[in-house]
Structures are given as structure tokens and as C-alpha cells.
Write a structure and sequence with these properties.
InterPro entries: DoxX, DoxX-like_oxidoreductase. This protein is 75% helix and 5% strand. With 167 residues, the protein is mainly α. It is elongated.
Length: 167
């Protein structure tokens, strides 16, 4: 191999290295941790919010559909089961409240880790109710765990409150 070939290969490798470094820096700029946290919070909140809103016919007035689902359709798939939901009206009410409240908390980033823990618990109950839905439930669980571990980020009320409270 001649010196000219070595120099050409080295400059090609250097160019490729520089291009890779530029691409990585642009990817990292796009995927800022605070932006990622916000997107994960929204991604988890949206399906729960939509489900929660459908359970209501007005302020604290459960829809007939929600009551029917918890009374007739939903079953707990536990060993020896499936079993009907205990206290279906109470479960529908709690489910509807939780889905709306915890989703709203995630969107604004308030009590974020607590809201994520609550939605993780709801996801586990949903998994027991709809066992074939595990691919989407696994995604929800991963998002909830990610939020619980990393927190809300700087685009949140949690961050503003912590910043205001600290001296």
C-alpha cells in the first residue's frame, strides 16, 4: 500500500468520523432529556385520558356504557377464574376518576412520579382484565416506569415547584 493510498483512506475515515459525530450531535440535540420526558408523559397520558373521558356523561355522572362494561363485560382473569369485578359501579367510578386525574397530572407534570405509579397499577389491573392486550400494556408499563425513574423533567410543574421551594 502506498503512502497516497493510506492518506486517502485516513481522510475518508476522518470524514466518516466527522459526519458520524455531526449526526450524533444533531440526534442528541433533538432528543433532549426534558423533551423526551414530556413526550413520554404525553404518550402515557393520552390513552388513559381518552378512556377516562368516555366513562362520563357529565360531572361525576358515570355513563351507562361504563357501568355495563364493569358489570357485564370486564372479568378478572386470575387463576381459577375469570371472576366478575367486585363492586362494578365503584370500580367504574374509581377507574374513570383515576384515568382522568392521573392523566391530567402527567400532562402538566404535577406529582408526576405518583401519577405514573397509579397508572402503572391501573395497567396491571387492565392486563388482568384484558390478557391479550399485553403488547400495549407492556408499552404503558415501560413508559410509567421510565417516568417514575427519571421524573418529569424541566418542562413540568414539579420542576417549577421544586425550583421555587429550594432556597
Amino acid at each position: 500500500m502506498t503512502d497516497m493510498t493510506r492518506t486517502g483512506n485516513r481522510s475518508a475515515v476522518d470524514s466518516l468520523g466527522k459526519a458520524t459525530a455531526i449526526a450524533l450531535s444533531r440526534i442528541q440535540l433533538l432528543a433532549q432529556p426534558d423533551v423526551v420526558s414530556l413526550i413520554v408523559r404525553l404518550g402515557l397520558a393520552i390513552p388513559f385520558w381518552k378512556s377516562g373521558v368516555l366513562k362520563w356523561d357529565g360531572f361525576l355522572q358515570l355513563s351507562d356504557t361504563a357501568i355495563d362494561l364493569f358489570s357485564q363485560e370486564f372479568m378478572l382473569h386470575l387463576p381459577g377464574g375469570p371472576y366478575p369485578y367486585p363492586m362494578p359501579m365503584v370500580m367504574a367510578f374509581l377507574s374513570g376518576c383515576g384515568e382522568v386525574v392521573f392523566s391530567a397530572l402527567l400532562v402538566v407534570g404535577l406529582a408526576t412520579r405518583f401519577a405514573s405509579l397509579a397508572l402503572l397499577a391501573m395497567t396491571l389491573v387492565i392486563q388482568i382484565t384484558v390478557p391479550d392486550g399485553w403488547p400495549i400494556h407492556l408499552t404503558w408499563a415501560a413508559m410509567a416506569l421510565c417516568i417514575m425513574r427519571l421524573g418529569a423533567g424541566r418542562i413540568s410543574l414539579d420542576y417549577l415547584i421544586c425550583r421555587t421551594v429550594k432556597p
